[in-house]
From TrEMBL:
Alphabetized Pfam families for the sequence: Abhydrolase_1 (PF00561)
Subunit structure: Homodimer.
A GO MF term: homoserine O-acetyltransferase activity
Record site: Important for acyl-CoA specificity: 320
Subcellular location: Cytoplasm
EC annotation from Swiss-Prot or TrEMBL: 2.3.1.46
Regions annotated as coiled coil: none
Protein known as: Homoserine O-succinyltransferase
Major subcellular location class: cytoplasm
């Protein structure tokens, strides 16, 4: 199957204030966007892809002249792939607060003339969806064929059905949850503490000091990465294999292959990801809870989405966003007599399975998007 080939991002500037759930506003901001495929004549074949924590607008394709620049979901999106760009117009948007081109903590605060740093306003999943809706509107699309996302992106896809139910027909939410468990919030907090206690963090204003809190970012990434993998996948890949085969001379040495792997992942992450962005995005994860304003009743929360169609996918070894959490969403939808399909894939890879090439998973996705492509579009 072919790639979408070379792609280029575009910047969309918005002068209209974006009101945020916190009560703050984001002024004079830009969003980075990529699109793939062709928008059809009646503008009915658009699919918005929402990104997870450390991803971006770069969903598919490659950048000319850049090695290893494949989009983070390139195995799923492209000509002849499950989300077929010969049939769909696919949109990737980098959310505000990110560090991959959209306005975020590293950008200049118009109120001070200095980088936002820790002063960048708190953002939520709802705020991101509001920003994405403005991109979709600017592209001249009144209704999306589908909104798709995995993990935190799945939360955004669900939020679209609650916030803009008339502006999409299908929701595809993969490896996600209706809110974070206390354990998940705890993992996020430990990662945040690793960052904010790094001496180079400087209260979030480290840009002015010409430093980066790399030690904290490394630990945060190591903690997060552990939660993305299953015990089975770590055992199969690393087991208890030691680097040198014997007991070392220091407790600070790297002894096991899994230690080496995690440190490598942490080192890579600290070179490209912004610490303030990490704090913002993990907080947005923590805050998401659509049932909260309905007294904890998820069924009531999804009443507004009764005429939408849903696909939920989970993976058996995903202990961070377990199948139980997807089933909670499915039950709320069934209680509302919503058209919902659910696939629980027996895969060994843990949470990261939603990014991988499992043929059963991709078969489910392909069949569902074929269904969307073949269904008649009813216009008002």
């Amino acid at each position: 199957m072919a790639s979408v080939g070379y792609v280029k991002a575009q910047q969309m500037r918005f002068e209209q204030d974006l009101p945020l759930q916190s009560g703050a506003v984001l002024r004079d901001y830009s969003l980075t966007v990529e699109t793939y495929g062709t928008l059809n004549a009646d503008r009915s074949n658009a699919v918005l892809v929402c990104h997870a924590l450390n991803a971006s607008h770069h969903v598919a394709g490659v950048y000319e002249g850049q090695a290893r620049s494949e989009g983070w979901w390139d195995n799923l999106v492209g000509p002849g792939k499950p989300l077929d760009t010969d049939r769909f117009f696919v949109i990737g948007v980098n959310n505000p607060g990110s560090c991959f081109g959209s306005t975020g903590p590293m950008d200049t605060n118009p109120a001070t003339g200095q980088p936002y740093g820790a002063d960048f306003p708190v953002v939520t999943v709802e705020d991101w969806v509001d920003a994405q809706a403005r991109v979709v509107e600017r592209l001249g699309i009144t209704q999306l064929a589908a909104v798709l996302g995995g993990s935190l992106g799945g939360m955004q896809a669900l939020c679209w059905t609650l916030r803009y139910p008339d502006r999409l027909r299908h929701c595809v939410a993969v490896a996600t949850a209706p809110n974070l468990s206390a354990q998940n919030i705890a993992f996020n907090e430990v990662a945040r503490r690793a960052i904010v206690t790094d001496p180079d963090f400087h209260g979030g204003h480290f840009y002015a000091h010409g430093v980066v809190p790399k030690r904290g970012l490394r630990v945060a990434r190591m903690i997060g990465h552990i939660t993305y993998l299953s015990d089975d996948s770590m055992e199969a890949k690393f087991g208890r294999e030691m680097r040198e085969g014997g007991i070392g001379y220091s407790t600070q040495d790297i002894e096991f292959q899994i230690e080496s792997y995690l440190r490598h992942q942490g080192d890579k992450f600290s070179e490209y990801f912004d610490a303030n962005t990490y704090l913002l995005i993990t907080r947005a994860l923590d805050y998401f809870d659509p049932a909260k304003q309905h007294g904890g009743d998820l069924t009531r929360a999804f009443q507004v989405a009764r005429d939408k169609k849903f696909l939920l996918v989970s993976f058996t070894t995903d202990w961070r966003f377990s199948p139980t959490r997807s089933r909670e969403i499915v039950k709320a939808l069934v209680d509302n007599r919503v058209d919902v399909s659910y696939a629980e894939i027996d895969a060994p890879h843990g949470h990261d399975a939603f990014l991988l090439d499992d043929p059963r998973y991709h078969g489910v996705m392909r069949a569902y998007f074929d269904r969307i492509a073949d269904e008649p579009v009813v216009t008002a």
